[in-house]
Amino acid sequence: MTGHETKAQIEARLFPDGLPPEGRWPTERTGMVNVYFCEEGRHWIKVRLSDSGTTPFLLGCRQCDQVMRSFAYTRPPDSLGVMGRQMRESDPTHEFYRPDTTEGLDQLEREHVRDGGLLLREIPAGGSESDGQGS
Ligand SMILES: [Zn+2]
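A: This is the predicted complex of the input protein with zinc ion.
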């Protein structure tokens, strides 16, 4: 609506008192689900927190190179209409996870993981938490 906002401007708007310490949402816990929304392109992804660690407030939108911002684990607003409903009702397509090893990561990713950051990946289609066959 206001054209192009820089990452710094978005952060200033979301966090007028400064970013939360250590880049961690105060309420962040394993199993929580969050939505990242790209206002420019109307793209969004739903992400599950599969391990404990820190997640970013902003992600690069993989579909249009704009910035996706986090809803900070709040309910997507009704003002988004149908899109908001889809955000609320769909299953997560992505997850934040802690890799078992930092082998194969580039240097930035390695430092990120070492500092407690989680990595983002797509959840394989049909994948579920446990493959245990109950009975
Ligand atoms: Zn986008």
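The CA atoms of residues 124 and 131 lie 13 Å apart. The longest strand covers residues 43-49.
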